Amino acid sequence: MDTEDRIEKFADLRLENLYESDFLLTWDRTDEEIEGVLAVADMLKALRENNRSTRIFSSGLAVSIFRDKSTRTRFSFASASNLLGLAVSELDETKSQISHGETVRETANMISFLTEVIGIRDDMYIGEGHSYMKMVSDAVREGFSERILPQLPMIVNLQCDIDHPTQTMADLMHLVHYFGGIEKLRGKKLVMSWAYSPSYGKPLSVPQGIIGLLTRFGMNVVLAHPEGYGLIPEVMTIAGEQSGKSGGRFEVTGSMEDAFRDAHVVYPKSWAPYHIMEKRTELLKARDMKGLEALEADCLENNKSYVEWECTQRLMKSTKDALYLHCLPADISGVSCERGEVEASVFDRFRTATYSQAGYKPYIIAAAIYLSKVKDPVSKMKELLYSGDRRVM
Amino acid sequence: MDTEDRIEKFADLRLENLYESDFLLTWDRTDEEIEGVLAVADMLKALRENNRSTRIFSSGLAVSIFRDKSTRTRFSFASASNLLGLAVSELDETKSQISHGETVRETANMISFLTEVIGIRDDMYIGEGHSYMKMVSDAVREGFSERILPQLPMIVNLQCDIDHPTQTMADLMHLVHYFGGIEKLRGKKLVMSWAYSPSYGKPLSVPQGIIGLLTRFGMNVVLAHPEGYGLIPEVMTIAGEQSGKSGGRFEVTGSMEDAFRDAHVVYPKSWAPYHIMEKRTELLKARDMKGLEALEADCLENNKSYVEWECTQRLMKSTKDALYLHCLPADISGVSCERGEVEASVFDRFRTATYSQAGYKPYIIAAAIYLSKVKDPVSKMKELLYSGDRRVM
Amino acid sequence: MDTEDRIEKFADLRLENLYESDFLLTWDRTDEEIEGVLAVADMLKALRENNRSTRIFSSGLAVSIFRDKSTRTRFSFASASNLLGLAVSELDETKSQISHGETVRETANMISFLTEVIGIRDDMYIGEGHSYMKMVSDAVREGFSERILPQLPMIVNLQCDIDHPTQTMADLMHLVHYFGGIEKLRGKKLVMSWAYSPSYGKPLSVPQGIIGLLTRFGMNVVLAHPEGYGLIPEVMTIAGEQSGKSGGRFEVTGSMEDAFRDAHVVYPKSWAPYHIMEKRTELLKARDMKGLEALEADCLENNKSYVEWECTQRLMKSTKDALYLHCLPADISGVSCERGEVEASVFDRFRTATYSQAGYKPYIIAAAIYLSKVKDPVSKMKELLYSGDRRVM
């Protein structure tokens, strides 16, 4: 499909509610809106590959707030911002600081006078990340309505405690390209499985985001994890409801082996148990450092009981020649750790695929910004296509 | 007044001495030059709000040197630079390092080969910040005259030990908008008052900058502080002289209560005593860490005697419905600290106003850069207005 | 020579192998390619000085990886990137971390989805820097060939353990301007001499880079150092071979005095002994911190035997009114240290010259990027010259 045809198809989607809106959770958006983000991402990618300029701003800031270390998300956001003509400014916050409302309100406005978008990553503490993003959003909306800010900065969730929408939409885009269309996902079995890792406290936002997004397209989504590694109940409910509506299935199992059988897609990845993450937030708020250390030791000890949860060649053979997904970096057995999430031979076979999967993210982020910022996204896309402005001049 | 009229009025001002000049202290500039900065700030703001591009550079660096932590000034400078088309590069210097001439000269040139402006914040040590800026300025002027540098980087003071010109010009811009014109300031009573804070070592540059700027427009400026919290004598002299010339008044009082009576504008803010700040510089130079700790304890103890210096509802009632100013962040009693500079109920009422006050700063910084960089500021402004280049394309 | 004549002359050079190529070692490039980089640097400089825009990208990232502290190289790279229209993103890596292949491969791709150039400085460990750059290069070439990356990022060596090509080409450009042409270098005596410094572990890449580049143009290159301060044998061999081919001479001497006699150019600079640097890498890999400390003490003690190796007025008098070179910062006796590489009176006389020398570097880096990125560098240069796009608009 060429870009003109894409624009025509894209013009049929109802996307007006994305305008001047944040992007925080995929399940707050309609199916058409999700498809719209993917469509714009595809078109921006095609424009760039055909050396069209995709600048829509001649000036403006894109502020990033990373309350946790990050390389790939940082570069994805920088790339997306640059693609649209925005300059990145990073707000350097003290790590692991639980924020107070007053300070958030003030800082949010102070960094936003000429800011078009604020990208936030805050995934460390259950009950904190999403609510922090909403505080920032409320603050700049208030600032805009009181004419303190001449434009409304959009908030884009670059990973919170609940969801990781730009990751999971990039994952979805990868699946759509792999299977040849979003409608081809119907009936495919996708396994989101816990896997062993020797590290502690990996966020729950990827598995939650995956079951919260991929249950919408008629897939048979299976969540597999050992006892005690469940996810936030609200997201489980959403996944179940969406699955029913979309004509797919959503199951939970305690066996990685059962889950992998006849799967078309597998996503084996470690995460911390929900109740541990909750306890961690409490201890942190109480500044109980000893308690935190003890919790970490407990949790790692507990993980060890499930060292067999590894994505092996043997398991992969039981699938229907499944595609392996990972948000990277993966804990590869014998490479990045002794025992980890995936056997080296499995990872090696899918390395290129996982890199390509990651490569969609800058365009997904750019698309989410584009749809929040551009009032008439169809006309603007035609303008970009026909203007003749080159990226490499 | 629309932008065209503004340009006409602006064309009458004598601004040629701002060209290729630094912006270090407001009292080194004429009234017309101060008005010129405000006029350009207003026009850049209007252009941006009408979606005109204000890029005057297609390439060039804006270097920032923050020798002290900063969020709002950092983003103001980033915003201003971006507005004009410059890319920010930060020079990361070790904090609290007293610089030596040779190193400053070399570094200043090494970061300036393609640099249009250097924004510096260095406010921690009395006798250091301003002289550091002059060293940098001398170095790049020498470099330019010796043809090492193909353009002369302008130095803009983002806060030194003596003055904080971009803050106080933003404050002035706020007052001009609030009262409806610079001539409306005449006869208004403005109080720059010390206020209690549980923190140590706040710079003197804001109160000094305020009395050094606002005594020029016929206002009745009152400086209020407890004994021992005086400002640099030179600035006091300047304030007195300017006040006389402008037909206003400049008074100093030891009573916050007296000061507030019938005031039109109040600026209650904490700062460290001048002699403490002087002693601090000496101890620092001698690397006397024990002495520094003792000094801090002394100073905080001393502050406690003046915990009653708080901007309360009761005090505000004695004013002529005064406008409350603050450069933010304020120490709000019961919010950011137990007892602080201002009662929460007072701050709440003026929160939006203080945020708007801060919002002028990016435009003030951009205007200062613009007037130093653009030889014919009137023609260029007309070009920006009529070119039709859009900011959001 | 005006820019048009320069372009004509430049059109005769064979530069096609620079296209889509990295710039890692000068001796991997032909004489014409080196001349090509200098010619483009000159033209970009002239264009900028004549207020022509030299943007060749409307979007794209320039990633910098500094595995060692840096001010001047950081700003040179930022300036060069900005000059061509690229936005800089810095990858913050833990210092002194010896990298593993798998991680490098993944990270290299993750930061490169929209990246045009990766500038790397990694000069601390013998056997590490150059091989790290090749790992990054291999990784992105593989990523490009597998269509993970839509463009091939170029790697530019901003200093490795073997060579410092952008420094030495800037040095060469300085000499060409000083003597009035590259052919004027023939027969001139250039001394690359070790000099005393009270600091430890300065990289060998500058002396190696100098003998590896300047032996190509018919100069008489003399390398002078105390016993035990030899360079990597491979580079010594290359220098000898090149020297023979170019009709110049390459000699090594153990006497600074002998070396300076009748010299036209002197480059006195400290570096660590090769065998110490090798041992350091071993100890580091073994995480032997005590061993590293002992090695440093040994090395500094050893240096002290050669405190007389200082560039003095007396020595300078024995030269043919030689030009003094330094890559800065120099250890100036009585200024930055008690005894150092150069007497203050010598440095003072050449300060402006050394600053100018440094000033070529941004253009050299930009030229190296330009020639790797632009398929038809002659036509593009004409476009930049005649387009009429201004830098200061």
Oligomeric state? homotrimer
CATH topology of the largest domain in chain A: Rossmann fold
By DSSP (H or I, 4+ residues per run), the number of helices of chain A equals 15
Radius of gyration of chain A: 21 Å
Query: Which stretches of chain A are poorly predicted, pLDDT < 50 over at least 5 residues?
Result: none
Tell me about the biggest sheet of chain A?
Answer: 5 strands, parallel
Indicate the mean pLDDT of chain A: 94
What spatial form of chain A do the alpha-carbon principal axes imply? Answer: globular
Task: State the order of secondary-structure elements of chain A, H for helix, E for strand.
Answer: HHEHEHEHEHEHEHEHEHHHEEEHHH
Description:
- Three copies of one chain form a homotrimer.
- The first copy, chain A, folds into two domains: 186 residues, Aspartate/ornithine carbamoyltransferase (Rossmann fold, 3-Layer(aba) Sandwich); 194 residues, Rossmann fold.
- With 393 residues, chain A is of the alpha/beta class.
- The two termini of chain A are 26 Å apart.
- In chain A, 58% of the residues are buried.
- Helix content of chain A is 47%, strand content 12%.
- The model of chain A has no long low-confidence stretch (mean pLDDT 94).
- In chain A, the strands form three sheets. In chain A, strands 7-6-5-8-9 form a five-stranded parallel β-sheet. A four-stranded parallel β-sheet of chain A has the order 2-1-3-4, with helices on both faces. The first copy, chain A, has a two-stranded parallel sheet with strand order 10-11.
- Chain A is built from 15 helices and eleven strands.
- At the A-B interface, strand 2 and helix 4 of A face helix 2, helix 3 and helix 13 of B.
